[in-house]
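Researcher: Let's do a round of design. I'm pasting the structure tokens now; please hold your answer until I've finished.
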């Protein structure tokens, strides 16, 4: 996912200031709006990246979910649900307005996905977001899909007034979006994880000052699946 793309979403014009890391905003491509309906616009892998793809980023729709699940299995292996971060997602719905997919504009298939989830910084602590999983079709990792999804997700989280995003991932990759382990030392994930991969991005300066404790899921409960009656 070493590629460049950009977003043009505007940050909030009122209330507490929100900041994107230097270098996140650029001028390479336009992404689709994250309205509940299907957006328009697209992004394309930059020349010389080895993969040519025309895609657009949209808010996730119910019709995308089955393809998303298959994509996660292909990209992350069949055991991705066993990760510690999934304990904070299990039985919950993503944060309102913060589920996105990248669609191949040629055939509408899902080629990338990212979701953000509501958590608190310790029991009864300040609210924050947990990002993940971020996944891209394994055959398209040089087309700019992952970077476009990340930039769009960060921009939308800013627009909606969230103050901080946390994730577990590779520091060299996520550092380009401003994530670091600088302010996660007193925080923890439930279950086993690699501390140096526990990263955070402040969307509001000082949002993580003094934060401590184990992350707690507080997102909306998932609707129970209807039971299947025997014929």
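Researcher: That's everything. Go ahead.
Model: Designed sequence:
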């Amino acid at each position: 996912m070493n590629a460049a793309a950009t977003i043009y979403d505007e940050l909030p014009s009122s209330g507490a200031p929100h900041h994107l890391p230097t270098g996140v905003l650029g001028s390479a491509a336009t992404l689709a709006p994250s309205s509940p309906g299907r957006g328009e616009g697209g992004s394309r892998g930059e020349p010389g990246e080895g993969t040519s793809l025309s895609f657009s980023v949209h808010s996730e729709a119910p019709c995308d979910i089955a393809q998303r699940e298959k994509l996660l299995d292909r990209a992350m292996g069949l055991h991705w649900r066993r990760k510690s971060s999934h304990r904070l997602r299990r039985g919950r719905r993503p944060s309102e307005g913060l589920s996105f997919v990248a669609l191949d504009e040629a055939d509408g298939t899902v080629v990338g996905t990212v979701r953000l989830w509501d958590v608190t910084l310790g029991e009864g602590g300040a609210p924050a977001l947990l990002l993940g999983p971020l996944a891209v079709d394994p055959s398209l990792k040089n087309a700019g899909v992952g970077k476009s999804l990340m930039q769009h997700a960060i921009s939308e989280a800013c627009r909606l007034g969230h103050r901080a995003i946390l994730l577990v991932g590779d520091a060299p990759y996520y550092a380009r979006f401003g994530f670091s382990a600088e302010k996660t030392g007193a925080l923890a994930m439930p279950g086993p994880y690699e501390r140096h991969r526990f990263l955070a991005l402040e969307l509001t300066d000082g949002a993580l000052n003094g934060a401590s404790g184990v992350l707690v899921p507080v997102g909306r409960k998932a609707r129970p699946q209807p039971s299947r009656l025997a014929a």
